[in-house]
Amino acid sequence: MPLGIDFAPWNVPLKRRLQTLAVAHYVIIFLMAIGPIVPWLVITLLLVCFPILAPMVVLYLFWIYVWDRQTPHKGGRRVPFMRRLSIWRYFRDFFPIHLVKTSDLDPNKNYLFCCHPHGILSIGHFATFATEGTRFDQQYPGITPYLMILEETLRAPILRDYIMSSGVCVSSKESCLYSLNQGPGHSVALIVGGAAESLEARPGSTTLVLKERRGFVKIALTAGASLVPVYAFGENDLFKQVDNPPGSLLRRIQGKVKTTMGFAPPLFYGRGIFNYTFGVLPHRHPVHVVGNLIYYIYIYLST
Fold first, then answer.
1. Does residue 172 have a pLDDT over 60?
2. Residues 85, 71, 129, 284: what is their CA dihedral angle, to the nearest 10 degrees?
């Protein structure tokens, strides 16, 4: 290994190259959405190079931040064609990701999928609930899942609409209830541990943030939805993370960022596109997404 770097061989099959590019696409999109510098640079360049486009850009920004601002809170804007793109099959096969069916789900009911662990980028849950890469629609016909993610991720211009096309919505009580009340089969996938759980994601260990998280149960009770605990085995093995034990300087900084901006920035690393030693891409490791229905619950709320 020159310079201590394990480079990928030059004769890697084209199929594996396409799998790597599909995963790189996912990582880049979400990193840009969380820190939306690139989308704003694109808009700035458009205004500088093509001033004639200024009215169109202003109208677009008005549309997403004023006229259309509630869409991420009200079911998003899913596009079935985008969920079925072949890129998601390459994305699935990179690891690979398997959706393990343990029971049937009645399409006349609603469900709240309580997902763990968060991992670094929630790859297994995204592949399962925001794409048809794992054939969710074939295994659970009649079920329409909405994956709930951080609101900050859906604020970046251009990227917000691309991400929403996968059936992604803002993670909030109002958003969950809206999606669950759209009719039979409409269901919500909520990554319960959230940003706090991402700081615990590291290979070979599992720490769930659940003890104080009761809001998802109240949402299910209110909407009459059945709880479906979901666990992505292998999710925490996809990336490594810089040590950040509770009380350390790094952990305190991450806590302050989480309090201020709503998300915790884990310092993670994995592999690269052309090497297996370092980079921001996940390692190839199987992920098995498994869930099991608990029960039906309902509460009548009086006013």
1. yes
2. 70
